[in-house]
Amino acid sequence: MGSFLNTVIVRVPAGESLFRPGPQCPLCHASIAARDNIPVVSWLLLRGRCRACGESIPVGYPLVEIANVVLWGLAAARFGLSWELIAYLALFSVLLALSVIDIELYLLPNKITYPAILLSIAAVPVFAFLASDSPGSTIRSAYLGGVGYAGFLLITLLLYELIVRREGMGMGDVKLAVLLGLWVGWIHLFLVIYAMIFACVLGAVVGLVILVVRRSSRAFPFGPWLAIGAIGAILVSQPILESLNRA
Description:
- By secondary structure, the protein is an all-alpha fold.
- The chain contains 10 helices and no strands.
- The longest helix is centred in the middle third of the chain and has 30 residues, at about 135-165.
- It is globular, with a radius of gyration of 19 Å.
């Protein structure tokens, strides 16, 4: 899956097919043999270079593969062997691909976000009936989470542009919030607030660091921090909900 995500990251923004042609060097476009297409291992054995042209293959390729493994491991630790695990493995991989694209291109492609949102809207009731003791409440919480998170970001975006009179977040972030709110809200609607807080704190810290280093207030992609905030809220949802129940 990590290897496939690299294909998505490269080809979707370029408007290319995900399946044709097959795996190839991103520089010379030579076809990659199966022995040279083993995630991480092949990159290490080839010392990060294409067998055909000898040019360096960016380290981002194995990093994406490793990151996907780590995210899947964290999801498995959180949900165990359950129906929910299937949904959150897919979610984490989608968020990884979107985050890398946003970092590189300042773009959250509709070709990824729209299908992910539509599939999630359809999948929420299915997983609710498979895995939840109260499916009606779970479905309601998920849908309210998606609408609420996106609505909050949309209002924030409009107020920022009205007051500051400059572009802040983009609509891509608002659409991403629909996806995040659905699956954070699926666990518990209150967790959406934690996802917002985590994302805003991370975004503020990163923005401050960029401001100090660059000595300018140039825009930076907010999608990755929205994704990390949601993933964080999902992974620590159990202790958060336990503390709320004790309170």
